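Margin note from the TA: students keep mixing up input and output lines. Inputs are the sequences; the output is the structure of the whole complex. Example:
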Amino acid sequence: MTITFKFNYNKICNTLLEEKLKAHHIEFQSLGNGEVEILGKPSEEVLDIFYKEIHSYGIDVVENPKLILVQKIKDLIKDLIFNTDISTNVKTSVYLAEALNKNYSYLASIFSEITYTSIENYIILQKIEYAKTLIIKENLTLTEIAHKLNYSSVAHLSRQFKNTTGITPSAFERIILMRKKEHNHPL
Amino acid sequence: MAENYVKIALADDDPDDRLFFKEAFEELKIKSKVSTFNDGDTLMSYLNNENNEIPDLLFLDLNMPRKSGLECLVEIKSNDRFNDLAIAIYSTSATEEDIEYTFVKGANIYIKKPNDFNILKKTLSQVVTTNWQFANNGLNRDNFLLRL
């Protein structure tokens, strides 16, 4: 029997973080967007053990202001891609600059300094990764995916998929299906 | 998670290819530590020793004496200790079927060895930055396939 689950990543992370804070008796108030205000004065030792434990779940403390800014840019980009309610007429550069109240070229230079890639490439990578998930998990057709991700045409999506990964969407689907088959029935 | 360098390993029996590979990495923007192995056998005995550090990204030549790249790939994929290790096949040439077969067997990346040093640098840079995105941006590694 195979069961497929759907994840709400934001909720998972927030719930996990709150449960762990409670488990370590750290008093806090959630501020949203991954920010938490610590109310009491927990000892360095308590915080250290707490940080180590959440690190094993892939959650880390952001200290460097550049990292914080990059994280905010990434969150806004995710909103743009995954949340279809946001108006799609706005240019991404304008959207980011206005939301963060910073000059776009400044944002772009900090972003590539920290992540080794440009904001434009990051957006393409995220969209293609989302398309991969939709192909595998939701069994959507390329036409449906192109529409959902705001591509002007299926050809445009296919081209960007091939340019980004070096393989076509159909080869991708074939490889993942064959991998699953091998995994279930090893030779 | 922000490590200051990427740990790279290459198994290739051609000494010239090993040299070009190391030189290309020295000129990239991302800081890296490159270890090279002369064949699949040496690589696997290094990896199977639990005292040794597991690299972040492994490049495998397909045709090597004693143990081929494909044998290494299958062995690595059957061991949970290497779940976080991204594998790039680094080969002179192959048929479409061969390429797809290595992906099905669990390779993440397939690179056709370029003859030109500048193209090699560009290719390796693209591999390392894409791998970095998968390692640090919470992308699903199961879906990480890249062909260059």
